[in-house]
Design goal:
By secondary structure, the chain is mainly α. It has a single domain, classed as MetI-like (MetI-like fold, Orthogonal Bundle), CATH 1.10.3720. The chain is built from twelve helices and two strands; from the N terminus they run αααββααααααααα. The protein has a two-stranded antiparallel sheet. Helix 2 crosses helix 4, helix 4 runs antiparallel to helix 9 and helix 9 runs parallel beside helix 10. The longest helix is centred in the middle third of the chain and has 37 residues.
């Protein structure tokens, strides 16, 4: 292949990629709820990534002279502590900014780990069938028989409260959603013409499953992952609220909410701002998940 042909092929691939990105962005802008969800989510992601730059104070620095200090927001502008101080005099805004790192880190890690396990087991169950499918789906049924929060509490209580154990516990409770959805997709895909053609040409079962079927289950798995992210954020906050999640002094929205509940009558901002942060993140993720569901399903796009 000549240099000119190589350049032409790469130019065509770049144009297709740019066109795909442009189409994706235009689809976001056409949806008000989708645009809002993506905007809020991207702001929170950037806030977490730029926490050392955006944080006005050290989130761990205590100043008892400012204990439970009120927010300094007024018509004249923002004071040095716009969201107030907590019960130990620490800056609430800085702790909220660093707390976003914990929620997003745990959420992404759990979705990645649980999603990978669930997708692989779902493909194996749907494509192989037989005893493999029976064993995997019975495991799914057994796990679904327990409340997820109770199962997560039990795992963390046994392993001990830490960031790593929290991720493992939440991932072990989340893989079943992916496995069920992916298995259902694979059951319909394995009889499609392109799979039959690959089998006729002598492709191995492993190649068919992970080269031909896997790319076709990425879209539904992505939608499930987005919605699971919202569930993980709530579970992480709940476990931290109960003292079995992220341990102090690391800023965590759930722990901040637990610390502020005793001061709700005298210092409302201690519990209000962490609660609002959790609500905004979960709401934005749910809006993005709904938009992705519509985007990947042409029938829903036409209906809207």
């Amino acid at each position: 292949m000549s240099v000119t042909e190589t350049i032409a092929i790469r130019t065509a691939e770049t144009r297709r990629a740019s066109s795909g990105i442009g189409q994706f962005v235009r689809a976001i802008l056409r949806s008000k709820s989708g645009s809002l969800g993506w905007l809020v989510l991207m702001v929170m992601v950037l806030t977490a990534l730029l926490a050392p730059v955006l944080s006005p104070h050290d989130p761990l620095a205590q100043d008892l002279s400012r204990r439970a200090g009120a927010p300094t927001i007024s018509l004249s502008g923002l004071g040095p502590y716009p969201l107030g101080n907590d019960q130990l005099g620490r800056d609430m805004l800085s702790r909220l900014i660093y707390g976003s790192r914990v929620s997003l880190l745990v959420g992404v890690a759990v979705v990645t780990l649980g999603g990978s396990v669930g997708v692989i087991l779902g493909i194996l169950a749907g494509y192989l069938g037989g005893w493999t499918e029976r064993i995997i789906m019975r495991l799914v049924d057994i796990q679904l028989a327990f409340p997820l929060i109770l199962l997560a509490l039990s795992i963390v209580a046994v392993l001990g409260p830490s960031l790593q154990n929290l991720v493992v516990a939440l991932a072990l409770t989340g893989w079943v959603s992916y496995a069920r959805i992916v298995r259902a997709e694979v059951l319909s895909l394995r009889e499609r013409e392109f799979v039959q053609a690959a089998r006729t040409l002598g492709a191995t079962g492993r190649r068919i499953a992970f080269r031909h079927i896997l790319p076709n289950v990425v879209a539904p798995a992505t939608v499930v992952a987005t919605l699971e992210l919202a569930r993980v954020v709530i579970l992480e906050a709940a476990l931290s609220f109960l003292g079995l999640g992220i341990q102090p002094p690391t800023p965590s929205w759930g722990r901040m909410l637990a610390d502020g509940r005793d001061f709700i009558a005298t210092a409302w901002w201690l519990a209000t701002f962490p609660g609002l942060a959790i609500m905004l993140l979960v709401l934005s993720v749910n809006l993005v998940g709904d938009w992705l569901r519509d985007y990947f399903d042409p029938r829903l796009r036409r209906a809207r």
